[in-house]
Amino acid sequence: MFLTSLLELVCLSLCIIAVKVKSVLENNMVEIEGGGLRHKYSTIQFHFHSGYNLWHPGSEHLIDGERYPMEMHIVSLKKGLSVDQALADPEGIAVLGFFIDVTDKEESPEKWNNLTSYLINITEKNSTVDIKDSISIDDLLGDVNRTKFYRYKGSLTTPPCSEVVVWTVFQEPIKISAHMVELFIRTLNSVKAYRPRQNLYGRKIYASPGINQSSGHSWCYNDHCDYSPSHWNMLPGVKCGGNTQSPINIETEHVTFDKSLNNFTFTNFSNLHSMKYFINTGHTVKCVLEENMVAIEGGGLSHKYFAMQFHFHWGKIDDHSDGSEHSVDSTRYPMEMHIVSVRKGLSVAEALKDSEGLAVLGFFIQVTREKTNQKSWETVTSYLSNIKKKDSTVEMSSKISIDDLLGDVDLSKYYRYNGSLTTPDCNEAVVWTVFKQPIKVNKELVKLFPSIMGYYDVYRPRQKLHNRTVRTSTAPTGPRPHLLPLLLSLLYVGCTWMGGK
Ligand SMILES: [Zn+2]
Ligand SMILES: [Zn+2]
Predict the structure, then answer these.
(1) What is the chain's mean pLDDT, rounded?
(2) Cα 399 to averaged position of ligand 2 atoms, centre (Å)
(3) Topology of domain 4-212, per CATH?
(4) pTM for this one?
(5) Ligand 2 center to 422 CA (angstroms)
(6) How many C-alpha atoms does 388 have within 13 Å on its Cβ side?
């Protein structure tokens, strides 16, 4: 795990020292470990570097010769050491560097608004202001992928420039509005607040596993990568080893009827313009939906959710291959479709941290020989050959709706449980709905997924239920098994009586 306790951090005061805006943290509250660091570190402060103006980027590190507008440094001392002791230890200080980039959006994340609202009070050198809002470092980092970083041995970038720093520079930038970057520049009175780049000499720069593969992920479903499913829990920063993971096997004998699992209200499921494009992620085929258009509520969910995307899990090309993730009484289906939705009002990053941040609708796909009513599935599969290359995309030009894909599945019959994403980082943030009736898709169309995409068995093995319950929306119907012999014997008595007559 990396940056584990950053969640609890509250920063106490912002001050401007020399040419940096610096924030001082409460002692021993924030700690970092893991991420290849050989020691535990306690965070003491974070600060920012910026340029003279918006056209003069001010990050200290450069990636392939490019500077970002700003850079944030989170400074930590080896646990138990004083500043003086840390400055005398070759690995005494760990600094996490985050690039800050400007987004096209006018809005910055809310906590950045909170933080920058204090800047106006500290335009004087060495002035300080206490921060009254609770802002965590996590809030500031947003959805930056913390498994992708560079590591090298270096120094403080301000005097005394002690060569005691284990540097971690994250690949993905934090994104804030141009207006916010300007606030920092103005606070620092437009002075250049970064040190020019230094020579590397013979030093090595290491990349984390997250960066090593061009996909950005070195995980896969088979054994041909660093992290096969049984090793996902060893990926830095992931939750794959948790106790409420997905998928699971649903044992129908042990599901609990819950009458609060009422009908869903689906918005824009029949809209013909909800699908934007398909992308080959290297692990699946995903259809990205228009933002804030397709919505889900009801169905026993405590919140409203907006669907972002749907994607598929499949098996091999042969006739009897099963590629669904969930199973019912240990029976798996040939494929499974997931519609992934984010809780209304939350960003994806926020949703991933909330136990009910995401709602995923899971649909089993059964094969059929019939070719009736398969137009929508023919359309979807017709796009596959355009995205054979990883990360390639294809725009949706034909108009089909989600309802078209779901066909006549009874949407009132489903299972419900709390679980996780079924791919790294396996965040335990998902309210799962697994529909009982499968979508029926022609066998030949189902085979196109593995045959055209070139990868197969893209499903995670089942995870332990632990102490979770699976609920069901429909009360058990029909005679209970133990009533059957009684009914039969009554019938038998009836028959003999009639026969005897
Ligand atoms: Zn710095
Ligand atoms: Zn999925």
Answers:
(1) 86
(2) 23
(3) Carbonic Anhydrase II (3.10.200)
(4) 0.57
(5) 6
(6) 7
Among the bound ligands, the one closest to the CA of 362: 2
Cα–Cα distance between 211 and 230 in angstroms, integer?
A: 21
Instruction: Find out whether the peptide bond into 209 is cis, omega within 30 degrees of 0.
Output: no
In angstroms, the CA 497 to CA 297 distance is: 56
pLDDT tens digits along 252-281: 999 999 999 999 999 999 999 999 999 999
Q: From the candidates 47, 61, 283, 313, which is the catalytic residue?
A: 283
Instruction: Say if residues 285 and 263 touch (Cβ distance below 8 Å).
Output: no
Residues with C-beta atoms within 5 A of ion ligand 1: 73
Of 372 and 4, which is predicted with more confidence? 372
Domain residue limits, the chain: 4-212, 240-472
Q: Among 173, 158, 194, 179, which residue's Cα sits nearest to residue 50?
A: 194
Instruction: Mark whether 311 is an active-site residue.
Output: no
Instruction: Please say whether the beta carbons of 67 and 58 come within 8 A.
Output: yes
Q: Pairing state of beta strands 305-314 and 295-298?
A: antiparallel
Dist. CA 261 → ligand 2 center (Å)? 22
Distance from residue 135's CA to the centre of ligand 2 (Å): 33
Residues whose beta carbons lie less than 5 angstroms from ion ligand 2: 338
Q: Which ligand is nearest to the CA of 165?
A: 1
Q: Which of 31-45, 247-261, 450-464 has the lowest mean pLDDT?
A: 31-45
Q: How far is the CA of 313 from the centre of ligand 1 (A)?
A: 44
For 240-472, CATH number? 3.10.200.10
Cα-based distances in Å from 469 to 239, 365, 428, 433: 20, 24, 15, 13
Furthest-apart CA pair in the chain: how many Å?
Answer: 111
For ligand 1, the distance from its centroid to the CA atom of residue 179, given in whole angstroms, is: 22
